[in-house]
Amino acid sequence: MQFSDHAQSVGTAAPEPLFASIADDILQRGFSIVPNALPMALTHRLTDYAQQAVGFDPAGIGRNQQYQQNEFVRTDEICWIQGNAAVTAAWLNWMDCLKSYLNTRLFLGLFSYESHFAHYPPGSFYKRHFDAFQGQSNRVLSTVFYLNSDWGHNDGGELVIYPPDNQPDSINVTPLAGTLVIFLSEEFPHEVLPAKRDRFSIAGWFRVNDSTAQRVNPPN
Ligand code: OGA
Ligand code: MN
């Protein structure tokens, strides 16, 4: 499938009120859950692309020397996004606009964004984990964007976000196409429940420059 002719139609215009409500959510609660976050055409193209054009590899844990595959923790497959196709370039551009907005509003000092497609074949999961540990990573904000055009309650595969400090209520997110989840990487443990169907998503992280790391106050 060719995407290069569609650079205009995928659309990258990002509505400022949406960015404003994401910033408010992060300030007040440390996370934001937004249905239909991206332009519908871009969501559809990313959904098609993930299912047809992506070469997935087994996912690992950690980076570089610490990298290891561990099928007790996660069984998804991933493919890092470079932005070579028009559709992935549009994705990175949208996230770059969000990064600029959050830096202006929240002074987060976000420096870069990295993301990968993820495919959870039936039976796959990702056990409870943090995306970053205090002081050990420059990942500040985690993002997950879902690419499943219909998803029922019986399909499993929900994202469970646990509150910081062992507070009681966790939140279950249905991985329905168009839903964007953003949370402070060091504050929220989370897990992916076993999926009963093929489940596609994009996981990403806004990072700070190591040498200029700034801290956000955890939500209370
Ligand atoms: C991750 C992750 C959640 C999801 O890749 O680190 O937590 O819902 N993904 O896919
Ligand atoms: Mn995670």
Write up this protein.
The chain is of the alpha+beta class. It has one domain: q2cbj1_9rhob like domain (Jelly Rolls, Sandwich), CATH 2.60.120.620. It is 24% helix and 26% strand. The chain has four helices and eleven strands; from the N terminus they run H-H-E-H-E-E-H-E-E-E-E-E-E-E-E. Strands 1-9-6-11-4-3-2 form a seven-stranded antiparallel β-sheet. The protein has a four-stranded antiparallel β-sheet with strand order 5-10-7-8, with no helix packed on it. Helix 2 packs across helix 4. The longest helix is centred in the middle third of the chain and has 21 residues. It starts with 6 loop residues before the first helix and ends in a 12-residue tail after the last strand. The relative contact order is 0.22. The N terminus is likely disordered. It comes from Alteromonas gilva. Keywords: Dioxygenase, Iron, Metal-binding, Oxidoreductase, Vitamin C. InterPro entries: HIF_prolyl_hydroxylases, Oxoglu/Fe-dep_dioxygenase_dom, Pro_4_hyd_alph, Pro_4_hyd_alph_FE2OG_OXY. This is 2OG-Fe(II) oxygenase. Its cofactor is L-ascorbate.
Which features does this protein show?
single chain; 220 residues; alpha+beta; Jelly Rolls; 7-stranded antiparallel beta sheet; 4-stranded antiparallel beta sheet; 4 helices; disordered N terminus; binds N-oxalylglycine; binds manganese (II) ion; metal-binding; Oxoglu/Fe-dep_dioxygenase_dom; dioxygenase
